[in-house]
Design a protein that fits this description.
By secondary structure, the chain is an all-alpha fold. It has a domain at 32-79: Arc Repressor Mutant, subunit A (Orthogonal Bundle), CATH 1.10.10. The protein is built from six helices and no strands. The protein has helices spanning 2-8, 12-20, 36-45, 51-58, 62-72, 87-105. Helix 4 crosses helix 5 (62-72). The chain is elongated.
Length: 108
């Protein structure tokens, strides 16, 4: 054992501690500030709330809300109306952009 202590530069107290403690310690999860079930309910009830507003409601910082949403796989960004939702608006958008590209690269 003394050879191992010298070779790996480990203190003798550490080695004796490891030998005496054969069984691993039981791990406990620490108590979190954000109740996940409450956060899920909040997101379902009001999906358009900003993370900062949720953080104020839960009494935590915005980063804690972001991390929890990310870990749970919930949407992080607000869902805004997209032009693809309305087919006529999407076609008008495509036409307008294609005309910009054509006029940019065509020389008369």
């Amino acid at each position: 054992m003394s050879y191992s202590i010298k070779q790996f530069r480990i203190g003798p107290a550490s080695v004796s501690h490891w030998i005496n403690q054969i069984d691993p310690k039981a791990s406990t999860t620490r108590q979190r500030k954000i109740d996940k079930s409450e956060l899920i309910k909040d997101v379902e009830q009001d999906p358009d709330t900003y993370q900062k507003e949720r953080a104020e409601r839960f009494g935590v910082c915005q980063k804690a809300i972001w991390q929890t949403l990310n870990k749970m796989g919930l949407p992080i960004k607000k869902i805004l109306r997209h032009p693809k939702a309305d087919e006529s608006a999407w076609q008008a958008f495509q036409k307008k952009n294609s005309m910009k590209i054509i006029s940019k690269y065509c020389f008369y």
